[in-house]
Amino acid sequence: MSDTEELPPGSLELLILRTIALQPMHGYGIAQHIERLSEEVFRVEQGSLYPALDRILRQGLATAKWGLSPTGRKARYYTISAKGRRQLGERISRLERLNAAIQRVLREA
Fold it and tell me: Is pTM, for the whole model, over 0.85?
């Protein structure tokens, strides 16, 4: 049995935006950050990460530029845009309201 959980639809994009809001990061760094902070509950596979990053770029929520990773390899670094920051704030607020409502129902059940 796996110790990892599957993310609900749209959640990966939210976690990516939150991660790159901290500082510009390359794909592998984003995946590692999410895995580390989730205490490895979420494993971010390349097959999910890069399509999510492409969607974020197409929506104008982030920008990307090439640079060198700490190991000296060429890597694409992602930075959240102003539009991405606004959407991140809105999505966090909605998620917090949803989670609070779920908790109220669970406490009363």
Answer: yes
